[in-house]
Design a protein that fits this description.
Helices cover 74% and strands 0% of the residues. By secondary structure, the protein is mainly alpha-helical.
Amino acid sequence: MPIKNKFASIINLVYKNAEGFLLCAFTFLLVMDVFFGILARYVHFEVVFADELGKYFFVWLCAIGISAAAKDNQHVRLNFVVQRVPVSRKVTWVTSQLFFLLFTVFLFSWSIQLTYMHFTMDKSVMGFRFPMFVFTAALPLRFFLSSARIIQDICATLKNKDHKPWELNNF
């Protein structure tokens, strides 16, 4: 296998499993943070930042989870509206995804500004001296991954003639 194809297959594998890998990593970090926080109480060693760090790991976990739900089309949809609209289901699906895409692109732009503001202000987390922009970077990453997954779904829907959106087996 040529190096170019091998590199492309690795990139494809990472892209397909990015959310799963990140969810596992942040779940592990959150569990370890809680474990060390509990252990510190029993050995009378004060860990000031354990609670604060756990909150931010949880924020990252939720942000990546939202992107994973977008990847698998697991977000809540208003199926009863689609049943009453006299337009094809494919059109309503793509329209729904386009609205979702506009929302994520807007929030991606906003979250980039927020992260940049935290970076330029040299803002740090309250419990310990750690840059806040590292934690707020979860937001642009979440909205970028969600946008990419939505665009991927729109393209697949438009290409596939047999795609039947809004049916339970697609969820």
